[in-house]
Amino acid sequence: MENDINISLYMRRKFHMVATLLAVLSTFAKMADQNKERTFIMVKPDGVQRGLVGEIMKRFENRGYKLVACKMCTPTKAHLEEHYRDLKSKGFFAGLIEYMSSGPVVAMVWEGKEAVKMGRMMLGATNPLQSNPGTIRGDFCIDVGRNICHGSDSVESGKRESEHWFKDGEIQEWSPAQSKWVYE
After folding, report:
1. How many Cβ atoms are within 10 Å of 119's Cβ, its own excluded?
2. Structure pTM?
3. Nearest 5°: CA angle at 140, between 90 and 54?
4. What is the CA radius of gyration of the chain?
5. Among residues 93, 98, 75, which one has the least CA distance to residue 164?
6. pLDDT (tens digit per residue) in 116-169
7. Does pLDDT of 83 surpass 80?
8. Per-residue pLDDT tens digits for 2-19
9. What is the pLDDT of residues 52-78, one digit of tens each?
10. InterPro entries from the entry (predicted)?
11. Separation of alpha carbons 182 and 118, rounded Å
């Protein structure tokens, strides 16, 4: 009977050790997932024409975000109508689609902690005249119709937009060597 008690006590201790280990691993996994939030950022035709693609990318890289997808393309009107579907009822919709299909854009997916929120802050207000200096729009734009970039407004739209612009396999999974210098 004493052996049964010792075995039972031993098993409970092992169970608690395993449960504790799983809880610690779960915490680390959640922390890693926080660093994997993705946002869709697009440099619009005016940004491409003005040669600002590198500057915009540089700001995201300097901040510590990881580029996981990037391509230059001239989107079709149908592609843009789906991308901007939530604006379809707005009076400026037709002009927006016409403008956005007028030349190449650079579509990107960036990954990192609070990438959507920080991406929006880095871009600045949609109306450049309301954007603070130091933001992309605050530094490079004047008119709302030429605000050089688009950024996802939520994690859900970031996922939807990324999947709309990039096919399966085009968004890369990789680990930059600098991660330990960006994240705790």
Report:
1. 26
2. 0.81
3. 105
4. 23
5. 75
6. 999 999 999 999 999 999 999 999 999 999 999 999 999 999 999 999 999 999
7. yes
8. 666 666 666 666 665 555
9. 999 999 999 999 999 999 999 999 999
10. NDK-like_dom, NDK-like_dom_sf, Nucleoside_diP_kinase, Nucleoside_diP_kinase_AS
11. 15
CA nearest neighbour of 42 among 74, 15, 88: 74
Binding-site residue ranges for ATP: 44, 92, 120, 126, 137, 147
CA distances from 167 to 33, 149, 161, 162, 170 (A): 22, 21, 11, 9, 6
Please spell the DSSP secondary structure of 60-92, one letter per residue.
HHHHT-EEEEEEEE---HHHHHHHTGGGTTSTT
* Catalytic status, residue 79: no
> What order of strands is seen across the sheet that includes strand 66-73?
66-73, 105-111, 38-43, 149-151
Kind and range of the H or E run holding 42:
strand 38-43
Q: From the annotation, which residues make up the binding site?
A: 44, 92, 120, 126, 137, 147
CB 123, CB 136: distance < 8 Å: yes
Give φ, ψ of 11 to 5 degrees. -65, -40
pLDDT of residue 69: 98
Among 16, 83, 150, 164, which one carries the catalytic annotation? Answer: 150
